[in-house]
């Protein structure tokens, strides 16, 4: 069995794979850069709203981000289909 990768490391891996800055990711998910930095460092755990926004904005597989499951990092939803997805409670 593959050991689970902590969520803070998954956040960093996603950001680095997409070649984005912490500041850019934070702005896209409507939080302060310092809050996002704390999440990547493991000092703060992202809440459900943050997880959903990261998945939506960056096409990330929810199972990968939430649970660290051995699934593809990115969702197979095409960008043009995203507009059909309703973001409730945001």
Task: Tell me what the structure shows.
With about 90 residues, the protein is mostly helical. It is built from six helices and no strands. Helix 2 (about 20-30) packs across helix 3. The longest helix has 11 residues, at about 5-15. The model is unreliable at about 80-90 (pLDDT under 50).
Descriptors:
90 residues; mainly alpha; 434 Repressor (Amino-terminal Domain); 6 helices
Summarize the structure.
By secondary structure, the chain is mainly α. It has a single domain, classed as lambda repressor-like DNA-binding domains (434 Repressor (Amino-terminal Domain)), CATH 1.10.260.40. It is globular and about 30 Å long.
Determine and state the CATH class.
Answer: Mainly Alpha
Indicate the structural class: mainly alpha
Order of helices and strands: HHHHHH
CATH superfamily: lambda repressor-like DNA-binding domains
**Whole-number mean pLDDT:** 86
Q: From the alpha carbons, calculate the radius of gyration and give it in angstroms.
A: 13 Å
